[in-house]
Write a structure and sequence with these properties.
The structure holds two protein chains of two kinds. Chain A is built from 33 helices and 33 strands. Chain A is of the alpha+beta class. Classes of the chains: A alpha+beta, B alpha/beta.
Chain lengths: 1215, 298
């Protein structure tokens, strides 16, 4: 019986178009996505570059998982349909009376459709393979073909996932007897998947996320989070770890689902209803009258006017709305959303374990983020459900024969869709507000929530709804429409990859606007609304067409339908269609004119080629001698209401070389009105495309000679479509980069070597070598200045304060404007900023230094904490490093729309509103770093590490700025919060470093030679310097730093380098520890340390003997992350059961610790009983340690001071 | 009162089936029975008149309303009960009827309440008006169908095979309701059960193979057959001989396994036949038979 049903079912799939449509769609999509990743469209769009191979096992797994998302939504119409067709065509009435075994029936149906799914999946795999061999793809992006790379994802991900999705879809459709539930179940599973993706980004929930992701991708993510580029390119998917556990869990769940299906299923005519509140079903029988009536129909008035139907449509929208929200599946879905929303909203974006205050700006952003993708999918799904509601219930003939007009039907459904969407928004907003209240935050801005939802986000959802209505009317089968919509939505994301870059050609593009508490909605809101109107008018066209295609009368052929749709059009619709169309084309042409003709627009590939052209033409000027800036004086008037500015500048330049200089290259910009040099000459080259001019002096600038350069600037006028002015209504944040500069700028050169090779450019390092003495002439900050005298005269509106580096020498208010004059009394780097905002000011004097914090009034949570950070930092640095060179230190808040960072200019520290100011710090929580304090002390440290000692502009420069600032800040934090807080910080730093290696685009370099790579200079840098200080002793290390400052502070070129710094450390390092300098600074070295086993015994004298077995091994890594060991037999080897461990030879000192727990003020705290650096020279080590108290935990490198590939296994709890 | 006029209405489905073949008819107010076997095109014709489908050619008028051009105008005066229909689950009869009352443009709430109560009374569903229609018995569901079509006081009522699947008692009662409401309107009742027409209709026609013929009053149609229907009892083995020789329009077994055959003939076929009174089913079968012959001759 089984084989008969199986064969019959299997064959039947080849007779339906859906099988071929799905196969072709997925096959083509797979080819396109893979080929585009492999650079097929490089001739029309930005050249694809990647350090990892697109056909590695990991990348293929990712690609298949992505394509599968579309396929999951097709499952209900394959696996679900295989059983649903029996219900749909009422075959089950007959079939279920046959002597079929339920097992044969169920499994044959499932397996036959599953086999069909596998066949389609085969096309996906084939498509991906084909995508790699298409002509015009870039062979550099591909590794060698390896069938395993395809097989593995297929076996580990695809088969179990489709089995699970198949099982669940099959089961719900079998019991629900409705394909629709299948779709919603898929949606629910994807919500869960999305949620687990979020979970794994939190250290605490990583394991949970990896296990409960039904698709297994979160598990892969966790398993491979520290995979280097080499690992990614060469490894197969991990076969142990979380992926295996995850797969076992979900296979188990699939099995349980099948078991449930098998035992619960019966050959019954009626659907099984699973009802929580069981109601006794009853059959109604009510006889008709047995006598004759004299029927007289009551007098009623009917009205077929627009108003009546409009009112009815509104009424019926609630009727339809109730239909959706009372749906059990919808309720289940909503509960899930509530659960996820609550967890996401209450945890929010933590930084180093510390959350932010639930400010409405962030909460509203999260509400919109949560709705995101799912609002769109829901819209696709539910609009189909609503439009086909009558048909699904077989009531369509009844309603279609009534005089209710098509537009009223359609409008009522559209409105119902709006209620559903509004319901979701309101639900999430309510949850967000509850979280705010629950967490004791009462600055609730309901208006902001509502505007974000309905004034911004809904406007884009509405256009999606219109499109959905159109597609659902065009296609008869709502499953087809849904898949079409989804495929379109997915494909849309790839438009830029195919070379379609302009927003006007990408459906419904531009769906959000920036918002900051300081600025309010970004100025670009005007552009946003233009785009919204643009897409809305297309939406109107689509909606009118959807009415024209409304299915009221049956049995038209496609041709007839199109003819009908365009031949008979009511006048109002024709008007709407025309107005929509004209508006759409009109606005589209306007934007096109603005973006392409009025302002020349270049595609990504054109810009790429321009950069090549730029380098080829101008790189010859790179080594041209330049005069250097010695004085900068800026005058700027800021007009916040008009968002305009006017500026004047005077630069003094000096020929510091020994050669005469005959010309100077200027980088100009559109805002520059005019400029003059005090030396006469003429412009000999003017390149308006690259904004570049060369000014040739009549008489050479002789060595030592100075001249002045004066200029005037003004922003280009702001228009609806473009906002060239950098001025904000509140919270303007400008810097030196806006003013003209001198010399050839390497920044415009292409930096990726594969890309350079494509354009026949010589390979280029991202930064110059520190061993190249000519590169030492410029500091890391500026290629045209050393130390400059600086002053700024600023004016702004009466309610704002304008700030620039320097001491305030004059201040006045005139004609409703505030004027400020700032002047530095010591030279600073050519690195300055200009701010203007309506600030509250906190002020304090600290040992002769004036501390100020300028902040946005509602963000007053951490002001004193930041002030404390400034004070503690100044104290520590002055005591340990050198005196602070200024008499003031100021922090000022800037809007989140300008970024989420803090930056340190001379005595002036701009700090984003989204970091620090709204951090919700819990001092009691050892696992949460007070980052408001931490960032403050980091930025203050830059006053030393950058503003006193600055590296030459060569590799390793950021060791001297970022790494040292990070180290300094760690020390202040340690002093303030104790050594225990360091653990969280160091663990975080290690995690970020290891993770950062996975995203390396070119090559990983040792700390000493890093090329401004954040994961190296921040994360590895803080670990390395903290460890170095720990090994050498804090006092000794700080003394070294202090001496280093003495030697190099405020130096003139040639500038110092990280190489010099490391050499000097080495000099101060005892021989036994010199290996550390090599390991940590000069090479990439990693440990893999862990406790193998540990136990303890109590001795007769009440002491305890602890026995520890520990494994210690280390290896070096090349720039791609390949593990390196010593050549020949120099490496250490340890054979452990079937594993052979290998290590670079060691004479290393590694900390071994024994701990106990004590109670301090009711809180458990860790207390070290034994902590000592022990010399290690083999992989396997045993320690016997006697301690006085009962030990609870042991560890090898227990504080994670070393760079360890796996930091979680360094400790072991004793039992 | 206006008449429904169809002229030269034809419809061929994409699979080649000719569902309506040049149908022309004029239907006056009163009960009109459309008889025809399964697959005759009855439902196609009904749906076509009910504006749910368009013919390939032909014209249809209700009074001045050009049905094909102005579907909405017809829908305003139409009450339609399709052969097979469902309803939204979990909704009570009353709620659903209110919904339909809105669809039919009854503006004021009081009016809707009045007409819904009336429809529930007429179909005797008033007491179960709060119950879900999905849980109704077959007969009750059909009555609900009648209730919904009454709401706009329709001039043209189309009921497509409403008695199929009803037990005799329920069917009988159902027809009574139809009779009560049908006197002033055009009621088109399609059925393959001759008795439905016999009990109710003032006019009738037979549809077969998409062709319409024998439009007549049932009484007249029966009268036309007077003296042309002959009866004979034969043995089973003799059937083939008789069918080839005579126009056998009906046959049925007797208890002793002998056969009762009815033959249509202008004159007495031979002495073994006895003249009997014709009834409506004879009209139906004669029509079908004639139609068959015409088709095969054509």
């Amino acid at each position: 019986m089984f084989s008969k049903i199986f064969k019959f079912e299997f064959k039947s799939w080849f007779k339906v178009p859906i099988f071929y449509v799905y196969s072709v769609v997925l096959f083509l999509l797979s080819i396109f996505i893979m080929a585009s990743a492999a650079g097929l469209f490089d001739s029309v769009t930005v050249t694809t570059v990647s350090a990892t191979y697109v056909n590695s096992a990991l990348n293929i797994a990712g690609l298949i998982s992505g394509i599968s998302i579309l396929f999951y939504f097709m499952l209900p119409s394959i696996i679900g349909a295989s059983i649903n067709k029996d219900f749909k065509y009422n075959v089950h009435h007959i079939l279920y009376a046959y002597p079929i075994k339920k097992s044969s029936y169920l499994w044959a149906k499932f397996l036959s459709s599953f086999l069909v799914v596998l066949i389609i999946l085969f096309f996906v795999i084939l498509g991906i393979m084909l995508g790699t061999v298409l002509p015009f793809t870039n062979p550099d992006l591909l590794g060698e073909f390896d069938l395993m790379n395809y097989l593995q994802p297929f076996l580990y991900l695809v088969i179990p996932n489709f089995l699970f999705f198949g099982a669940i879809v099959y089961t719900v459709v079998t019991f629900g007897r409705n394909i629709f539930v299948g779709f919603i179940v898929v949606l629910v599973l994807l919500v869960i998947q999305n949620f687990t993706g979020l979970l794994v980004s939190y250290e605490e929930y990583k394991t949970l996320g990896a296990l409960i992701d039904p698709l297994g991708f979160a598990a892969i993510q966790v398993d491979t989070e520290y995979w280097t580029v080499f690992d990614q390119n060469n490894n197969y998917l991990p076969t142990d770890g979380y992926l295996l556990k995850n797969r076992l869990i979900w296979l188990g769940v699939s099995f349980l689902i099948f078991a449930f299906l098998f035992f619960k299923f019966n050959f019954e005519q009626q659907a099984v209803s699973i009802n929580l509140f069981k109601k006794k079903g009853q059959k109604l029988v009510k006889s008709n009258f047995d006598f004759f009536l004299n029927v007289k129909i009551p007098q009623i008035t009917k009205d077929y006017g627009f108003k009546t139907y409009f009112n009815f449509a509104v009424k019926q929208s609630f009727f339809d709305f109730r239909y959706i929200v009372k749906n059990k599946i919808f309720i289940g879905f909503t509960l899930l959303v509530i659960l996820i929303a609550l967890s996401v909203l209450s945890v929010r974006n933590q930084i180093q374990g510390t959350p932010t205050y639930p400010v409405t700006r962030e909460m509203a952003q999260m509400v919109i983020g949560l709705t995101g993708f799912f609002m769109i999918i829901m819209t696709f799904l539910f609009s189909g459900m609503l439009l086909n509601r009558a048909k699904i219930s077989n009531m369509d003939h009844l309603v279609n024969a009534t005089p209710f007009p098509n537009w009223a039907f359609s409008f009522s459904k559209f409105l119902a869709m709006f209620w559903v969407q509004a319901f979701i928004y309101s639900l999430l907003i309510t949850l967000a507000i509850s979280v705010q209240l629950f967490q004791g935050y009462f600055k609730i801005e309901l208006d902001h929530y509502l505007f974000s939802a309905f004034g911004i986000n809904y406007l884009s959802i509405m256009v999606w709804t219109m499109l959905a209505f159109f597609v659902h009317q065009v296609f008869k089968n709502y499953i087809v429409s849904f898949v079409v919509l989804l495929a379109f939505f997915i494909l849309l994301g790839f438009f830029p990859d195919f070379g379609i870059e302009q927003s006007i050609f990408r459906f419904n593009n531009r769906d959000s606007v920036g918002y900051s508490d300081m600025v309010g909605w970004s100025d670009y809101i005007s552009e946003f609304y233009v785009y919204r109107l643009y897409w809305f008018s297309l939406g109107v066209v689509l909606y009118v067409l959807s009415l024209q295609f409304y299915r009221r009368v049956e049995q038209y052929s496609a041709k007839q339908r199109i003819k009908k749709a365009f031949s008979q059009m009511y006048f109002p619709r024709l008007i709407a269609l025309l107005v929509g169309f004209i508006t759409f084309v009109g606005i589209g042409s306007w934007i096109y004119y603005h973006d392409n003709i009025e302002n020349e627009r270049f595609t990504g590939i054109e810009r790429e080629k321009q950069r090549v052209e730029f380098e080829n033409t101008y790189s010859k000027y790179a080594n041209l001698a330049l005069p250097r800036l010695t004085d900068v004086s800026i005058e700027m008037d800021i007009y916040p209401e008009e968002r305009d500015y006017k500026a004047k500048g005077t630069f003094k330049l000096k020929n510091k070389t020994t050669q005469p200089i005959d010309s100077i290259m200027l980088n100009v910009n559109d805002d520059l009105l005019n400029y003059t040099f005090s030396k006469s000459g003429e412009v000999t080259l003017k390149d308006t495309l690259n904004n570049l001019e060369v000014y040739y002096f009549d008489k050479q600038l002789t060595p030592g000679e100075t001249m002045t350069f004066k200029f005037e600037m003004q922003n280009e006028p702001n228009t609806v479509l473009s906002r060239p002015s950098p001025i904000n209504s509140n919270g303007t944040f400008l810097n030196y980069g806006m003013f003209p500069s001198f010399g050839y700028s390497e920044r415009f050169e292409l930096s990726n070597n594969k890309l350079r090779e494509k354009y026949d450019l010589p390979p280029k390092e991202r930064m110059n070598s520190p061993y190249d003495s000519t590169a030492l002439k410029n500091n890391y900050i500026s290629n045209s200045a050393d130390w400059i005298n600086f002053e700024a005269k600023l004016s702004t509106s009466e309610d704002q304060i304008a700030i620039a580096p320097g001491y305030l020498v004059d201040e006045k208010t005139e004609n409703g404007r505030n004027y400020y004059h700032y002047k530095m009394d010591k030279p600073i780097l050519n690195f300055y900023n200009i701010m203007s905002a309506d600030y509250e000011v906190y002020e304090e004097d600290h040992k002769g230094t004036k501390l100020q914090i300028f902040y946005h009034e509602p963000h007053d949570f951490n002001i004193e904490r930041m002030a404390q950070g400034m004070k503690a930092s100044l104290d520590y640095y002055e005591e340990n490093f050198s005196p602070y060179q200024f008499r003031q230190l100021r922090i000022m808040e800037f809007p989140s729309t300008s970024g989420s960072f803090a930056q340190s200019f001379a005595n002036t520290v701009p700090f984003s509103e989204s970091v620090g100011f709204i951090a919700k710090i819990d001092e009691e929580n050892k696992d949460a770093v007070d980052y408001a304090f931490g960032i403050t002390s980091h930025e203050v440290a830059h006053q030393w590490w950058a503003h006193q000692v600055i590296s030459a502009d060569v590799r390793g420069a950021t060791l001297l700025s970022e790494s040292l600032s990070e180290y300094s800040s760690l020390k202040v934090l340690e002093q303030e919060y104790g050594v225990n807080q360091m653990r969280r910080f160091l663990k975080d730093a290690l995690d970020k470093y290891l993770r950062g290696r996975a995203f390396e685009r070119q090559k990983e370099l040792p700390l000493m030679l890093n090329e401004n790579q954040q994961y190296i200079h921040y994360n590895k840098g803080s670990l390395v310097l903290y460890a170095m200080s720990d090994y050498l002793g804090e006092k000794k290390f700080n003394k070294f730093l202090s001496d280093y400052i003495d030697q190099f502070a405020f130096q003139e070129p040639p500038y110092t380098t990280a190489v010099e710094f490391v050499d000097q450390i080495e000099e101060r390092t005892p021989d036994s520890l010199k290996y550390l300098v090599d390991d940590m600074f000069r090479t990439i070295t990693l440990y893999d340390n862990y406790i193998e086993d540990a136990a303890y015994n109590m001795n007769p004298d009440s002491t305890y003997t602890v026995d520890i077995e520990a494994i210690v091994s280390k290896y070096k890594s090349n720039e791609k992350g390949k593990r390196l060991y010593a050549k020949g037999n120099d490496s250490l080897i340890y054979v452990k059961e079937k594993d052979t461990l290998k290590s670079w030879p060691m004479q290393d000192y590694i900390e071994v610790g024994v701990f106990t727990e004590i109670e301090v003020d009711g809180q458990k705290e860790e207390k070290p009983l034994y902590l000592k650096k022990v010399r290690i020279d083999s992989i396997y080590n045993t320690f016997k340690i006697i301690v006085d108290e009962k030990p609870t935990e042991v560890g090898i490198d227990p504080y994670n001071k070393l760079i360890d590939t796996k930091s979680g296994d360094n400790r072991k709890v004793l039992d | 009162m206006q008449a429904l006029k169809l002229s030269h209405v034809s419809k061929t489905y994409s699979n080649g089936v000719k569902a309506l073949d040049d149908v022309s008819i004029e239907i006056q107010p009163g009960m009109f029975g459309l008889l025809g076997p399964n697959g005759a095109g009855k439902s196609t014709l009904m749906r076509t008149i009910a504006t749910l489908q368009e013919p390939d050619s032909g014209e249809m008028y209700l009074g001045n309303i050009n049905i094909l051009e102005d579907k909405m105008a017809l829908r305003k005066v139409l009450g339609y009960l399709p052969q097979d229909f469902g309803v939204y689950p979990k909704l009570s009869a009353e709620k659903l009827l209110h919904y339909f009352a809105q669809l039919k443009g009854i503006q004021s709430k009081q009016d809707r309440q009045k007409i819904v109560d009336f429809a529930l009374e007429v179909t005797n569903l008033y007491e179960v008006r709060h119950k879900s229609v999905a849980g109704y018995s077959g007969g009750m569901k059909q009555r609900f169908g009648i209730a919904q079509l009454l709401l706009n006081d329709p001039h043209l009522i189309i009921v497509d095979e409403p008695t199929a699947g009803l037990d005799p008692a329920e069917r009988h009662r159902f027809l009574n309701v139809l009779r009560d409401i049908g006197t002033d309107h055009i009621v088109i009742l399609s059925t393959h059960i001759v008795d439905d027409v016999k009990e109710l209709c003032t006019d009738m026609a037979v549809l077969n193979g998409g062709k319409l013929f024998n439009q007549n009053k049932p009484i007249d149609a029966i009268n036309e057959l007077k003296g042309k229907i002959w009866n004979k009892v034969i043995k089973k083995e003799e059937l083939d001989a008789h069918t080839s020789q005579f126009e056998v329009i009906n046959r049925n077994y007797n208890q002793d396994h002998s056969l009762n055959i009815k033959v249509f003939s202008e004159t007495k076929p031979d002495e073994s036949f006895m003249s009997i009174e014709p009834d409506l089913s004879d009209v139906y079968f004669v029509s079908l038979k004639q139609n068959e012959t015409e088709m095969s001759n054509a």
